Amino acid sequence: MTGRPAVVPGSFDPVTLGHLDVIRRAESLFGRVVVGVGVNGAKQALLPVATRVALIEACVRDLPGVEVAPVLGLLAEFCQDLGAVAIVKGLRGGQDLGHEEPMALVNKELTGIETVFLAAAPTWGHVSSTLVKEVARHGGDVSAYVSPAVRDALMNAFEQGGDVR
Ligand code: PNS
Questions:
Q1: Which domain, by its residues, includes 51?
Q2: Structurally, how many domains does the chain consist of?
């Protein structure tokens, strides 16, 4: 796939069906999408970055315009290196906006690249990786929120003594 991509960044710890809806919508808007799996310094991750990348790759096999890559340093540099046309993030209301707006402004100041926000579909507005991990950690069924492979990876992580912060 050629052309300047849009970057959909996130921790994706783990990727949810809500994230996948945003990735699909970004692909239909921009044609080419790179999903950037980054490290959020404020959060302790459950799954290693390589596992998060592999789980997303398995979920986007039917989307020819979508690639997945780890963000090893600054998101702004990752986007610049790719010649990204935009950063795309899903918004689940005001709380997300409060968290996302400063990052969008900093990324714009660092690179000139705009962030485009997509309103989360109502079906997924209440779904977050944190909530999914909380349910899975206590043995609850998360099949309505994540792919079967992600559900299995979570069960595995918690069986091996993973913790959620
Ligand atoms: O899913 P999240 O936790 O909202 O994703 C946050 C993420 C990973 C996109 C953000 O923390 C990030 O971009 N990290 C990479 C390092 C970086 O560029 N930090 C400055 C952001 S303005």
A1: 6-122
A2: 1
